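Running co-folding for inosine 5'-triphosphate.
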Amino acid sequence: MKILFATGNKNKIAEAGTLFGELGYDVEGLLVNGNRPNFIEPQCNSLMEVALSKIIQARAMIKNSDLEGCAILVEDSGIFIDSIENFPGVFSSFIFETIGLSGILKLLENSQDRGAEYRCVTILDWNGKIYHSNGICKGKLGKKEVGTSGFGYDPIFIPHEGKGRTFSEMTEIEKSSISHRSNSLRGLLTYLQHPSK
Ligand code: ITT
């Protein structure tokens, strides 16, 4: 069964593809006129609201096309810094593009509390049913950027379960074994395997 992952972020598709592929589901990025979707993100405070808006936008994008009957997957994620309530949270993408990692490191320059967590909400629209799941990955922010893999905040995020390494120092498989996204996607897989849950 094919699942279309509606996202403009190719890193997200790679992570979902590996997990779902192991169970025989084929995950592909949704392309509209050859392009990945570019969502309008509503101004709101919850990942769930943003993810629901993405499902509505994705469904509208494929209405009256050959893809209309396909299962659609979306996710919204962000990093939440313990010492700054809800920041950058739903605005993670915007803050990354504006002040960047150097701006975040500057903000935390004198902070003793460097705790942070990635959070993720995934929603799957499958045969008219909506499934959703949350995932978290707890860790802390390093004092400088380390590593070259991953994307976004990965060079400064040190997960508790990573033996002191940033996500950017891990292979895709290592990151995927503990990431917020894979935790959330595993929840969806449980629903698919046991639909009555
Ligand atoms: P779509 O909305 O098109 O799916 P996006 O990249 O804009 O793609 P989000 O709106 O969910 O995704 O923004 C999430 C941002 O949070 C992302 O751009 C990164 O800056 C950060 N982020 C989320 N998960 C991450 C991860 O696994 N590694 C690094 N940064 C991550």
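Result summary
Residues 7-9, 12, 39, 76-79, 92-93, 96, 118, 150-154, 179, 181 surround inosine 5'-triphosphate (CB under 6 Å).
The longest strand covers residues 129-141.
Job closed.
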